[in-house]
Each structure stands twice: as structure tokens, then as C-alpha cells.
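Q: Is it fine to ask for two folds in a single conversation?
A: Yes, each is treated on its own. Send the first.
Q: Here.
A: Result:
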Amino acid sequence: MVRTGGASVTAGPTLAVVAREAGVSVPTASKVVNGREDVAPETRRRVTEALDRLGYVRRPRFDAAKTPGLVDLVVHSLDTSWSGAVLHGVEAAAHDAGLEVVVSAGLTRTRGGRPERGWLDKLTARGSSGVLFNLAELTASQYAWLEQHRIPFVMIDPVLEPPPGVVSVGAANWHGGVTATEHLLALGHERIAVIAGHQRKMCSTARVAGYRSALASAGVRHRPEYVRHASFDESVARRRMLELLDLPEPPTAVFVCSDRMALGVYEALAERGLSVPADMSVVGFDDLPEARWIAPALTTVRQPLSEMAATALRLLVRMMDGERPESTRTELSTRLVERASTAVPRAPAH
């Protein structure tokens, strides 16, 4: 067992175990791991499947002194404005620290649903001094690999609660949910729905908890049918908004837990011939550029993505220098940005 900041995680299997699982010799399994060409395709397939199934991670020839000015940033994807904000924050902080950053869209999934190990192999080859993970969901063996080889790392907005001792940076999501809901309550709305992201994701559950807390504090009844989940997907959010509109008593306002999902909400309202904010007030979350571009401009909760990323890089630098942060969790404040997508509820027709 390997301990990760006080939490025990199981180290990965040995190459001998992988070879036995695949029905080959250890030297043959080693050839596959090291990318040798002199292996039959069928044999390579069996070994590769065994590597993925068992979660084997190649042992690195890691030497932090090899490239002391290099860190890795592993992002969920590179095609969103979210990623752009994170990249901007990391690049600026890395420039100030005299570091070079290698960016990769890693942690993609294989057909079996297991995270690929490509970023580990690349990290090994580069000899990076530390790693930043954005929106990452690491396995126990990956945490163990990083701990075994003493590679400092920081999580930016982790998908799930990381093991104790793992350093992470995020936003005050609960407070953001409270702020968004209180804004709608102050306008006079009581029938307030929420379209959240993934049910199990940390930030999503915190935002919904803040929404519920604000309703309770105002003495407004919580309606379970007003809580929908859309996996942070624009098209799914559109469908969830249509479902809300089809309720016997639809909401007059909706708190959407990401700006991208709010685009889907706008689309659903337009399909039904409803306008924002006259027929439906909408509040988003993130304050991405899209929030300013859509019409009407979106009232949203700003989470400081670039600042979160820069903070994570600065924490990583301290860890690379042998320091340990006083707290493993750093939360940056959120704030409401009022634009044109919210208004008092329309008076009921008599």
C-alpha cells in the first residue's frame, strides 16, 4: 500500500502480473510497454488489454533535475472557453515563475471506460517537475503512481472529492448557488428551478446545495420537480428546460449551473415563443465570454477561472520547492454579475 496524504491507495500491478494475465512472458510484456515493434499484433492486443484492465503504469525514469523549469498541465479538453481561461491563468503565473508549461488534453477514456495512461508515459519521458490537473478524475493507481515517484501535483476544480492530503483549488460554489438564488428571490420570484450539472460532481452538488439553502432561508418551499440535471451539456439543458415548461406549474425563473447550459435554456425558451427575462429569468454560472455575447446578456455567477489556475500554479511551485501548503483546499470567492437576463416576475393574468 502507498499512502497519499494520509489516505491509503493500492499500488499498481507488476509487469509479471500483467504478463501472466495476458498469457505471455515478462520480456514480451516489457516489449509492448516500451513500444517495441517486434511483437505480433494479436499478442500486443492481449497485453495492451491486460495493461488497461489491471491499471498498470509504466515505471518512469524520472529525474526532477532533468528539466527543473518544466511543468505539465493536463486539461479535460482544449476546445472550450473554460479551458482558455485556465490556460491564460497558468501561462501568466508560469511566466512570472520562469517556468515552461506543456499542455495536453489527457485522461481521455478507453472503450472500457478506463482512463488512458498516455499522459503518465509522456510525463515520464519529459521529466517534468510537477503537474496541474484541471477537471480531472484520477484513479487510485494514478494517485499512487504520482505519490510513489514524488511528483508534486495540484488539482484545479477536481471532479470528485480528492483523497485527504491532495492539494486542490476551486471556487466557492455553495456561496455562488446562494447568491444566484437570492438574486432571483429579491426580484420576487418564488417558483425558481435549477438545472445542475453532473449529480456526483463536487461543484454541481455544492451549487444545488446553495440554491436549496437560499430557498430555505427565505421560507420558500423546495420543489423536487424543479431540480434537473443536465451533465453540463447544452443540448441536455435544452431538454431539461422543456421538461420544466411542461410542468403543471412551471417556474418563473431558473438558475442554470453553467453558462454553456444556459445557451440550451435560451434555445428551449425561444422554441416555445418565450422571451428572457419577460417570461423567464435566467441566471448562469461561470461568466464565460458567451455570457456577454448572447442576447439578452446573461446574469451569471462569476467564478475566477484564471485566478484559480494561477493560484494552483503558485501552490505547485511551492511544493516543487519542498514546501507544504497550510491547507489542502483553497477556495476563491464568487460574485454575481448582473446583466439583462433577470427581471421581476410577470404579473399573473386575471
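Q: Second one now.
A: Result:
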Amino acid sequence: MTRNRPVPTEDWNGRPVPTVNAPAAPEPRASEPRTSEPRPEDRPARLTVGVVGAGRVGPALAASLRLAGHRPVAVSAVSDRSRRRAAELLPDVPVVEPARVLALSDLVLLTVPDDALPGLVEGLADTGAVRPGQLIVHTSGRYGVRVLDPARRAGALPLALHPAMTFTGTPVDVQRLAGCSFGVTAPEELRLAAEALVIEMGGEPEWIAEDARPLYHAALALGANHLVTLVAQSMELLRKAGVAAPDRMLGPLLGAALDNALRSGDAALTGPVARGDAGTVAAHVAELRKHAPGTVAGYLAMARTTADRALAHGLLKPELAEDLLGVLAADTATPADGAADGAADGPQGDDR
């Protein structure tokens, strides 16, 4: 990938585009000793950056852009938690209303929940807050640039830059952006500008077609968000089984499983489902119904999916799959009875 490509200087309407080239260190003259990189604040053509929505993502991205020499100038925040987050990651940056954020900024990051994004964009455009030539960037995985059409019609330059990373809302997020992939959707004439911004934040652009954004986002949610749920459930069950440090037990196992899956895909499948150990799976389900009935539905769904994939890839022998799928089918026939039996042992609230 070429990291120092020029960025278009005009948009498709002939208006100037703020320069966002990823900076390169100047070569010293032969008579001069090689010096360190110039300070970010000394680099030319820096943008003023505003954040609308101080959730976990926006302040981290703005802090990362600050490291690249851009200048965060305003952030909007509603809750006390978001105000504290903004103060920690963007110290000395004033908290103002969204319209004021746009008035002060060359580059605006819209980092609000997906469902709130269309209404926010329409409202900002309808009130005249959007300026011609302003870069408007949203970080939603679900949407491409089409959701920014109201701002584009007002003269803004639309970009969709979604970091494929989970955020904590702490300074560690800025470090984690190094090497993070970004799902990028942009008009053809703004592709270089989008690429430069992602690179300046330490990320790697991955181009996603407008119509493929929902599928792209579903894939990430399936892998990352559901993983958190599964790990949390596993730790709860290990504690019930008497394990004092479930995180320490799971760390090496899950790390190896993730590494193997990323390297080998379905070939990395192991465990009783992939082996066709129907009796073991039946015992698992019985114990889960007794001690954690809220986990049964998820276990059964994942077991059926795992069995299907193991069969399709020749890992699960058909003669063993028949017994295994029979156990899973028989168990799903009476979920209400099992749930009632489990509930009799204690309130389900204890298992959440």
C-alpha cells in the first residue's frame, strides 16, 4: 500500500478539500545529522477535529488524530460518564452543543449509536450546521455513506470509517488502533482522503461496498460481540464448578483456540461435538439445565452449528453425527420442562 499518495484538492463540485495527507519525515541534507520525526503540531495542513457523541469510540479516534498532528477543538457529551471520558482522552477540549462542534471543525466525527445516526445527520443538515467542504465521518459499521446524503447535499464530504475493534473508553484504545482494520466506504474521489485518515490513526483501510455494509457488520458482531457473551458465560460456569481464577484458566485455552481458528478455520474444530461424543454432550446439557438454565439455548444452538460445520468439512463421522444430532433434537423437544426443573433449584437471576 502506498502511504504517501496525494489527496484530491477539490471535491466533485470544485470546492477545496482539506488536506489530510499522511505526513512523511523530510530527508535531511547530507551535511546534517538525521533527526527525529517533526513534532505533530509542526506538520502542515492539519485539520480541526470535532466529535459529536463522546461514547467509547469518538474520543479515542480524536486522540489518535491528535497524535498525527490534527487538532481536536470541540466535543459534544450528554451524560456524566461521557463528559469524564472526554476529559480523560481529550483534556482541555471544550464540551459544547453538536451545532457548535460543526461550526468549529474541518473534520467532524459522528460517533453515536447506529439507530441515532440517520436522525442526527438529518437534523444537522436541516438546521444549517453543515458547511460546504467539511469532512463528515461516521463510525457506524452498519451504514455506508448513503446515510450521510443530507450532509452531502449541504456540501459536506462524506466518509464511513468503522474501526473493527472493541473499545473500552480508556486511553488503551488509542494504542490498540495501531494495526486495526477499518471498514471504509467512500465516494471514489474521496478514497485517498479516507485512506490517509485511517493510516494517520494507525489503522489499515479495508474497502467495503455500500450494499455490503450490513453483512460486514453482522460478521463482526457474530465473531466479537457473541464471543464476549460466550466467555462471560464460561467464566460464570467455571466459578460454579469451584475454579478460583477462571480468567487464568481460560486465557491460554481461548488464545490458542482463536489463533488456530484464524489460521485454519473449521479445521481447528475440536471438542465433543466435533468428535461426535453424544453422551458427553447430553451430560453437558443436563448439567447446564441444573445449574445455569439460561445458557442451554445458546449451547444447543452452537452445538448444532458446530456439528453441521464439522460434518461439512469431514471432521465428524456421519455414523456418529446421527447419535449426536439425535441427542440435540431430543433435548430441544422439551425445553420448557428442563427450564422448569432448573428454575426449581434456585432463581434464574443468580445465573445471569
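Q: Anything structural to flag on that second result?
A: Two points. The radius of gyration is 25 Å. Confidence is low (pLDDT under 50) at residues 1-15, 21-35, 333-352.
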